[in-house]
Each structure stands twice: as C-alpha cells, then as structure tokens.
Design a protein that fits this description.
214 residues, alpha/beta, seven-stranded mixed beta sheet, GATASE, EC 4.3.2.10, cytoplasm, hydrolase
C-alpha cells in the first residue's frame, strides 16, 4: 500500500499549534486530518498524539476528548499510535512536575520526571542511540541529530516483554545530564521524545518510515 492511500489523524486535544505536524505528515504523502473526532481517530490507519507544555495540562486536554480510551481501544485492536514529545510522556503511568504527580495513560510502566541536567530545558539538536531492529530509524546514520525541547522525560524502561502479547519493545536513548528514552517502538505503539516535524530531513525520513509501515 502506498503512502498516498494511508490515512493519518493528528489528535487535536488543545495541545499547541498542530500545523507544523500536519504539514510534516502531508509531506510523507499520507492523507492527514487534524481533529478531536472519535470516529476519525479510531478509523484512520495511524493516529498521532502530539503534546507540548506540561504533563498535567496535556492529560487534562486528552481526557476532555476521551483520548485515553481512543488510544487504548486502538492498541487493543493492533492499530498504530505514535506519540510525540509530551504525547510520548503521557503514555507512561505518571508524570511528576514541580512536585505534582499526575496519572498518565498507563500504556507503559514508569514515571516521567525532570532531567538531572544543569541546563534546562534540553533544547536543540542531539544524537540518539537507536535500538536494534528499529523501523523508525531505519536508513538513518548513527550520527543523525534530532530536535529536542523538553525538561522532563522517562529515564528508565520498566516494561517486561514476558508480561505482554506485544512484540518485544525497541528502545532508543539519548543523553542530557544522563540517559533518557528518546523513542520507543512497542508493536503498534511508538513514540518519540524529540520533534520529528522540527527535525528537518532526518525527521521527515523517520515519519516516512512510520507511515510506510502502517
């Protein structure tokens, strides 16, 4: 199936300007819709969950459109979901910001917390160490750089492949004051801490990889 015959929905739950993400996915050749409509989010080939700002605010917005249920129902049916930036963070069990603990979607175990770095936010270009067998990073060199803007991240990976019917997870790491998860691929659920839509040719390549795999 060609990219042009694949449909991508960017879930609009009030988290930031989604136009750059829309343009980036349109350049892959996919048919792109930006909406909070449940039916569109359920029926598309690939659902994108973006996110900027605070973990708690993103979870509140997601809950307002029943986004957790949409994500969970898609994954239960093996339908692909891609989280970006805070859209990745909210897939974990919880986030802690300024001492406030917020429950996440719980698709992955673990806590999102502040990076132990002297300079925050982590803003700018950084390399990643892609996991073996990665689909997202296929065809990209090891020194490829991606654009990050964040102060918080998941810094441990607590998923147990033996407890899940999903394929083993592929984890990709980066460093800023310590190691953190830059991306995860776990069957139909994938996510990036960086912004592929702001990462130039490298980000465009990654998005094409995801769309072509739908």
């Amino acid at each position: 199936m060609s990219a042009a015959s694949k449909s991508v929905t960017i879930l609009d739950y009030g988290s930031g300007n989604l136009r750059s993400a829309q343009r980036a996915f349109e350049r892959t050749g996919a048919q792109v819709t930006v909406t909070s409509d449940r039916d569109a989010a359920m029926e598309c080939d690939g659902l994108v969950v973006p996110g900027v700002g605070a973990f708690a605010a993103c979870m509140a917005g997601l809950s307002s459109v029943r986004g957790e249920r949409i994500i969970g129902q898609r994954l239960a049916g093996g339908r692909p979901v891609l989280g970006i930036c805070v859209g990745m963070q909210i897939l974990f069990e919880e986030g802690v910001e300024f001492g406030v603990q917020t429950t996440g979607c719980g698709e992955w175990p673990g806590t999102v917390s502040q990076l132990p770095a002297p300079v925050l936010p982590h803003m700018g270009w950084n390399t990643v160490t892609a996991g073996e067998g990665s689909v997202l990073f296929d065809g990209l060199d090891a020194d490829t750089r991606f654009y990050f803007v964040h102060s918080y991240a998941a810094q441990t990976w607590e998923w147990s492949d033996s407890d899940s019917a999903l394929p083993p997870a592929i984890t990709t790491w980066a460093e800023h004051g310590g190691e953190f998860l830059a991306a995860v691929e776990n069957g139909p659920l994938a996510a990036t801490q960086f912004h592929p839509e702001k990462s130039g040719d490298a980000g465009a390549h990654l998005l094409r990889n995801w769309v072509h795999a739908l």
